[in-house]
Amino acid sequence: TDFGYKEVAPEEKTRLVGKVFTSVASKYDLMNDLMSMGIHRLWKRQFVAGCGIRQGDRLLDLAGGTGDIARLAHKAGARVTVADINHAMLTVGRARMDEAGLVQGFDWLQVNAEALPFADQQFDHVTIAFGLRNVTWRDRALKDMHRVLKPGGRVHILEFSKVGLPALAKLYDGWSFQVLPRLGARIAGDADSYRYLAESIRRFPDQETLAEQMREAGFERVSWQNLSAGICAIHRGAKV
Ligand code: SAM
């Protein structure tokens, strides 16, 4: 398939994203380390450290995947619900937590971020790391995050963003579109999925645009912070 290279209809996207993550689940953690040269661990640590988690806070980690954010949040004192649409990713995540003797600290749920099965005003924090760009209807997902937050609660988004330095942007493009699909082919036996990932990063809104979409969904005090010159950005917003 060449779905990474053409616009896909929204109804198609959810299915394709499902295929991608089912395909990469067993190699997901290894690939993250290789593709980012380990830097994703630093980004994630900085992301969670800035959430302002207090002991006992209820935190919903959306698109939680294999549980990296959930683990860090749990360590910071949160009661964590991990939600992901993909059964294979959740299975890998749970097995990993089990090995670390950690499974009991979490609730695991197979959930579409666009239609959260929670009552209003349940959580102190909603986190979503490298997940929002995979969601088909971003506006619905943002609104639902806002809905399930308690007043005073905050949303935290970690996502690839727009690189500010032209020279770095060029290098990074080469890395994404040349190196990543090859790595994907060699390690995970799946170049297409990694092409999709690179393409989805390119299509994702830049810092200012995402901030505006968060405001449209009802968030206030929206701010962002670039990581690694904008390769990633952390956006945060409050429900007042
Ligand atoms: N948050 C983890 C991390 O930082 O390592 C996983 C990120 S992984 C790149 C993206 C995750 O988003 C996948 O596990 C995928 O199944 C999940 N996902 C994609 N679309 C989703 C949706 N509509 N609702 C919930 N999760 C979704």
TrEMBL record:
It catalyses: a 2-methoxy-6-(all-trans-polyprenyl)benzene-1,4-diol + S-adenosyl-L-methionine = a 5-methoxy-2-methyl-3-(all-trans-polyprenyl)benzene-1,4-diol + S-adenosyl-L-homocysteine + H(+); a 2-demethylmenaquinol + S-adenosyl-L-methionine = a menaquinol + S-adenosyl-L-homocysteine + H(+). CDD domains: AdoMet_MTases. GO terms for biological process: aerobic respiration; menaquinone biosynthetic process; methylation. It is an enzyme of class 2 (transferase). SUPFAM superfamilies: S-adenosyl-L-methionine-dependent methyltransferases. Pathway: Cofactor biosynthesis; ubiquinone biosynthesis; Quinol/quinone metabolism; menaquinone biosynthesis; menaquinol from 1,4-dihydroxy-2-naphthoate: step 2/2. InterPro entries: SAM-dependent_MTases_sf (IPR029063), UbiE/COQ5_MeTrFase (IPR004033), UbiE/COQ5_MeTrFase_CS (IPR023576). S-adenosyl-L-methionine binds at residues 66, 84, 112-113. GO terms for molecular function: 2-methoxy-6-polyprenyl-1,4-benzoquinol methyltransferase activity; demethylmenaquinone methyltransferase activity. PANTHER family: 2-METHOXY-6-POLYPRENYL-1,4-BENZOQUINOL METHYLASE, MITOCHONDRIAL (PTHR43591:SF24), METHYLTRANSFERASE (PTHR43591). Methyltransferase required for the conversion of demethylmenaquinol (DMKH2) to menaquinol (MKH2) and the conversion of 2-polyprenyl-6-methoxy-1,4-benzoquinol (DDMQH2) to 2-polyprenyl-3-methyl-6-methoxy-1,4-benzoquinol (DMQH2). Belongs to the class I-like SAM-binding methyltransferase superfamily. MenG/UbiE family. This is Ubiquinone/menaquinone biosynthesis C-methyltransferase UbiE.
